[in-house]
Design brief:
Blueprint (H helix, E strand, L loop, with lengths): L1 E5 L2 H5 L2 H19 L5 H10 L10 E6 L5 E9 L4 E8 L9 H15 L4 E7 L3 H9 L3 E3 L17 E7 L4
Parallel strand pairs: 4-5
Antiparallel strand pairs: 1-2, 2-3, 3-4, 5-7, 6-7
Length: 172
């Protein structure tokens, strides 16, 4: 497995099938776990319309690939305020989970955040994704209050379903 950065918007757009799978996973999971319904087509359209935030110079898109170039997972990284970055759309399809792909993608995001000179890496995750939250904790993330740059800051519907986490990079 290798982690590759997609630097061009057209390359990120080529992930539309994986993005659609991710969106369906998230909307199905929210419905099942919390009874919250979202239109996956609307969420996909919003995601596709904001991809400019996850390519240089603003952000990054990371993909994990096998030796044949098959994409095994993805993660977006975008600015979050003046001194932080935020992981978005971290996704490893069910068949690839448990093989360190998510950890490798988060590690790539941490490295890029450090290289950008940011002081923190933030994320939000649905509270029921226990394996993901355990991974974040293992990598040094701690829970925190919702941050204003989050897409779901003070969101009365989705906010209660989320946990917000951060890893400070400016502390010993």
């Amino acid at each position: 497995m290798r982690i590759r950065t997609l630097d061009r918007l057209q390359d990120v757009r080529s992930l539309d099938g994986l993005l659609e799978e991710y969106i369906r996973f998230v909307t199905d999971d929210l419905e099942r776990a919390f009874g919250v319904s979202f239109d996956p087509d609307v969420l996909l359209a919003v995601t596709l319309s904001t991809l400019d935030k996850v390519v240089p110079p603003k952000g990054h898109t990371f993909v994990a690939e096998d030796t044949h170039g098959t994409v095994l997972g993805m993660a977006f990284l975008r600015p979050s305020g003046a001194d932080a970055m935020e992981i978005k759309r971290l996704y490893v399809p069910p068949g690839g989970r448990g093989h360190g792909i998510g950890r490798a993608l988060v590690s790539a995001a941490l490295n890029a955040t450090r290289q950008a000179g940011a002081k923190a890496l933030r994320l939000e995750s649905t509270r029921n994704l226990e394996a993901a939250i355990a991974l974040y904790r293992d990598l040094g993330f701690v829970e925190r209050d919702a941050y204003p740059e989050s897409d779901h800051f003070e969101d009365p519907i989705l906010g209660p379903c989320l946990t917000f986490m951060e890893k400070r990079l400016d502390e010993a």
